C-alpha cells in the first residue's frame, strides 16, 4: 500500500482504509483530484462505502486504459463526485489481460449501465453482475474490441451481406 502521509488524513482515504484495510493499493492527489487505486476484488464494497458514507452520489464515467504489453494490462477508471462538499474522486482498478473482468457497480449507481456496456464493447472487459452486458456501439456480430492496443489498425475483416 502506497499512501503518502498527507493523504492518510484525507477523510475519503481514511474512511476507505479504515473499512477495508487491504483494498487501497495506492493513493495520490494530482491537481486537486484524489485518485485511489483499489484492488479489483474490493470495488463493489468500496463504491458502496463511497456512495453511502462519503456521499459520492454522482458517477460521471467509467472507462478503461489498455497498457498493452504491460501487465496488469487494463485499468478500469471510475470518475465520481460528491456534490456536498464539491469533491471529485478517481478510482482505478488494475486487471490482467488474459480474461479481464470486474464486478459491476450497477447495484450502486444505476447510471453505470451504459458506461460499463461501452467499456465492455470497446475493451472487452466483462462487468460481472451487469443486468444487460451487450454491445452498445459496435454491431452485435462485430469481432474484437477496437480500443485494445493489439486490435488491428484496419480492423478485422468484416463481411457485409451483398444487397443484390
In N-to-C order, the SSE pattern is: HEEHEEEEHE
What is the C-alpha radius of gyration, as a whole number of Å? 18 Å
Given the structure, what is the number of helices? 3
* Biggest sheet character: 5 strands, mixed
- Strand fraction equals 25-35%
Average pLDDT, all residues: 93
Q: Low-confidence parts, pLDDT < 50 over ≥5 residues?
A: none
Spatial arrangement of strands, main beta sheet? 1-2-5-4-3
CATH homologous superfamily title of the domain at 5-98? NADH:ubiquinone oxidoreductase Nqo5 subunit
Class computed from helices, strands and strand pairing: alpha/beta
Calculate the terminal CA-CA distance, rounded to whole Å. Answer: 62 Å
CATH class of the domain at 5-98, named: Alpha Beta
Helical content (DSSP H or I, runs of 4+) = 10-25%
Q: Specify the oligomeric state.
A: single chain
